[in-house]
Amino acid sequence: MYDICVIGGCGHVGLPLSITLADRGKKVIVYDISTEAVHTVRQGTMPFHEEGAAGLLQKVLADGTLELSDSPAVISQSKIVIMIIGTPVDEHLNPNFQVMVDSVNQCMPYFRNGQTLILRSTVYPGISERVNDWLREAGLTMNVCFCPERILEGKAMTELYSLPQIISSFTPAGLQECRDLFGLLTTELVEVQPTEAELAKLFTNVWRYIKFAVANQFYMIANDYNLDFYKVYHAVTHRYDRARDLPKAGFAAGPCLFKDAMQLAAFNNGNFYLGHSAMLVNEGLPNYIVQKLKVKYLLNKMTVGILGMAFKGNSDDIRESLSYKLRKILQVHAGSVLSADPYVTDDSLLPQAEVIAQADILIIATPHKQYQGLDIPLNKVTVDIWNVLGRGGLI
Ligand SMILES: NC(=O)c1ccc[n+]([C@@H]2O[C@H](COP(=O)([O-])OP(=O)(O)OC[C@H]3O[C@@H](n4cnc5c(N)ncnc54)[C@H](O)[C@@H]3O)[C@@H](O)[C@H]2O)c1
């Protein structure tokens, strides 16, 4: 028997949680449909970069508190089941309910009466209640809970122990299970109703997405007036607490923020001006850069080098990365496009030194820490929307 089964436990959210719970002494079994990921993790290798996770993974495997399986049968052998699968929007930017429907249906034969099912994916509000209904209709008596994950990729191994955990359940027994489980990680638990918890998670992500859009719009306004955004940014934020949370400009991408803004828009019957505007601003930034370069330079005769293809700094995660969108647009407008990333393995990338040497224009698209103090000749045109080099962000 296992204390906990984590469905989707080889993913960016599932694996750090599985490792930390196993490190707290729980007997954890990871169930994942990806046989390849299960094999990799079982060997003690992280399938993606997550700061500080590799050593702890090897420890919990050696301790025997973490095991892995690609068979759903292990669900039946577990007291608590945590489900953390991806919840994308479809090609029309609508929530894709089918992913949850299919995953719950696949697991249904293995669920047992008396088990606690904790949903931890970011979901369209009301999904937890639907899952609760499906299980009851199937004759199962389970405690259904919704406890969203709010970690920042790359910081999971510290944030899992430091962030307050939002917990909710349809039954008092389920809520107590959540208190006991997440109480292993933190002393701060925030108890709400399931739909409140679902909305709290969406609000958390969309708040960030809109803040990034504000910074990006400010960046474009300053730049259009030939002013360096970062001089203005410094003036606004320097020892001025009320503006301290103004983010730097840069690509706001990845598998969560955009799709969660669209989930919230769908939940509000498509009426979400701020969310849609944020999407237009953030998704429009790559094209804005290219159009600016076209006005200033003979772009179609030049080689452009992109440094950073991951969607965020110090990460190998390229899911929904705007660097790839930038490259696609440049492939139409520039003479040629080269790209590099110290974290990403991708056949289309070249060594960084080669990209720097060959490019007429360099764009720092991802704020990897390796780029700070990078030796780029001063006479080479450099676009640094994040101001990683500290030379400003003017295009
Ligand atoms: N990535 C983040 O930083 C982050 C942060 C907070 C919340 N979230 C949310 O967490 C959820 C998961 O995101 P992620 O980034 O970990 O996704 P991911 O794609 O990295 O991981 C999902 C895992 O689930 C597995 N899987 C998919 N369907 C399955 C099934 N039916 N049975 C068993 N395994 C299955 C996949 O093989 C994969 O390993 C999403 O809802 C996301 O919005 C993500």
From TrEMBL:
The keyword Oxidoreductase applies. SMART domains: UDPG_MGDP_dh_C (SM00984). Belongs to the UDP-glucose/GDP-mannose dehydrogenase family. Signal peptide: none annotated. The keyword Transmembrane helix does not apply. Residues 305-391 form the UDP-glucose/GDP-mannose dehydrogenase C-terminal domain. Its EC number is 1.1.1.336. It comes from the Bacteria. GO terms for biological process: polysaccharide biosynthetic process. This is UDP-N-acetyl-D-mannosamine dehydrogenase. Pfam families: UDPG_MGDP_dh (PF00984), UDPG_MGDP_dh_C (PF03720), UDPG_MGDP_dh_N (PF03721). GO terms for molecular function: NAD binding; oxidoreductase activity, acting on the CH-CH group of donors, NAD or NADP as acceptor; UDP-N-acetyl-D-mannosamine dehydrogenase activity. InterPro entries: 6-PGluconate_DH-like_C_sf (IPR008927), NAD(P)-bd_dom_sf (IPR036291), UDP-Glc/GDP-Man (IPR017476), UDP-Glc/GDP-Man_DH_C (IPR014027), UDP-Glc/GDP-Man_DH_C_sf (IPR036220), UDP-Glc/GDP-Man_DH_dimer (IPR014026), UDP-Glc/GDP-Man_DH_N (IPR001732), UDP_ManNAc/GlcNAc_DH (IPR028359). Keywords: NAD, Oxidoreductase.
